[in-house]
Amino acid sequence: MKTTLVTAAELAPHVNEPDWVVFDCRHDLGDPEAGARAYAAGHIHGARFAHLDRNLSGTKTGSNGRHPLPPREVFVEWLRSQGVDEGGEVVAYDAQGGIYAARLWWMLRWIGHEAVCVLDGGLQAWQRSGRVLTTAVPAILPGDIVDRAGINPVVAAFVEAHLGDKSWRLIDARSPERYRGENETLDPVGGHIPGAVNRYYADNLDADGRFKSAQQLHAEFSGVLGEVDPRDAVHQCGSGVTAAHNLLAMEIAGLAGSRLYAGSWSEWYANPGRPVAL
After folding, report:
1. Where in the sequence of the chain do the CATH 3.40.250.10 domains occur?
2. DSSP string of 106-118?
3. Per-residue pLDDT tens over the stretch 157-180
4. How far apart are CA 36 and CA 217, in angstroms?
5. pLDDT for 198-221, tens place per residue?
6. Domain 5-128 in CATH: superfamily?
7. Mind giving me the DSSP string for 65-121?
8. Counting CB atoms within 10 angstroms of each CB, which of 173, 247, 263, 272 has the fewest?
9. 156-268, CATH topology level
């Protein structure tokens, strides 16, 4: 059972197996339909398409962030419609460094499905290995996955209650510029949650777009954590997407048990009574 990463060579023998379900998670925040067009133009054999806004997010209310989680039962029903079985392996990939694939990875763990992994290096690694793409849409038989109530996300009230508490660590996955409140292009309010430390998700990858070694990630995240236990680390970003990339990186590093603040910055600033740091 794969629970963090899979290589292109490891995935290739399984793409025709019914108990392995592959999801193409490509997306562009500036062009929400770009991923669907890319999928139609060519994808890994057997892959289904997972749209960040329609399948991996719920309804926005104006106060719950840009990519709120969908109701658990809605997510599970969609997984069943895509052929995911209770005992099956799920593989997620994208072409954006794994940020959208990591969102699906975390959501499977959210409902208690541990057999889920991300294609290391994404679609680029698949193509560099000489493997071809297809435009064929797979025939899908309904799956039987169930909600086993896995890890729970952290809510804003928890973050508010723990501001200034040195026993935990809030880790912001956004770029250093956005963390500082500079060059903010996605949210109308710049800055970060007071006390949050910055760990840019892109720093989890090497020059080839693959995750760094477990040893290197362990050393780097240990520096971010300091004396804080990994189980007392909470990840956030702009909307709960790239934060999952840091959570995955910590799992690869053997620093298990950290949590996600799913609403993240876009939920935090929606309440003008919450403090903002620059």
Report:
1. 5-128, 156-268
2. HHHHHTT---EEE
3. 999 999 999 999 999 999 999 999
4. 32
5. 999 999 999 999 999 999 999 999
6. Rhodanese-like domain (3.40.250.10)
7. -SSPPPPHHHHHHHHHHTT--TT-EEEEE-SSTTHHHHHHHHHHHHTT---EEEETT
8. 272
9. Oxidized Rhodanese; domain 1 (3.40.250)
**Average of per-residue pLDDT values in the chain:** 97
**For residue range 131-147, what is the model confidence (pLDDT) as tens digits?**
999 999 999 999 999 99
Q: How far apart are the first and last CA of the chain?
A: 43
Q: How many CB atoms lie within 10 A of CB 200?
A: 18
- The DSSP element (H or E) to which 215 belongs, if any, is helix 214-225
Residue 162, number of CB atoms within 10 A of its CB:
16
Q: Are strands 89-93 and 169-172 parallel, antiparallel or unpaired?
A: unpaired
pLDDT for the residue numbered 182: 96
d(CA 252, CA 259): 14
Q: How far apart are the C-alpha atoms of 219 and 240, rounded to whole Å?
A: 24
- Give CA–CA dist 278/276, Å, rounded: 7
197-198 and 20-24 strand pairing: unpaired
Confidence category of residue 150, pLDDT binned at 50, 70, 90: confident
Contact call for residues 118 and 94 (beta carbons, < 8 A): no
- Which two three-digit tokens encode residue 116? 């889920």
Q: Which one, of 90, 85, 87, lies nearest residue 141 by Cα? A: 85
- Tens of pLDDT, residue by residue over 89-103, are 999 999 999 999 999
Residues recorded for the chain: 278
* Closest residue by Cα to residue 214 from 99, 115, 120: 120
Contacts (Cβ under 8 Å, ≥6 apart) of 188: 269
Q: What single letter denotes the amino acid at residue 259?
A: R
pLDDT at residue number 46: 97
Cα 217 from chain centroid (whole Å): 17
Tokens of 237: 């970003």
The two tokens of residue 46 are 């057997």
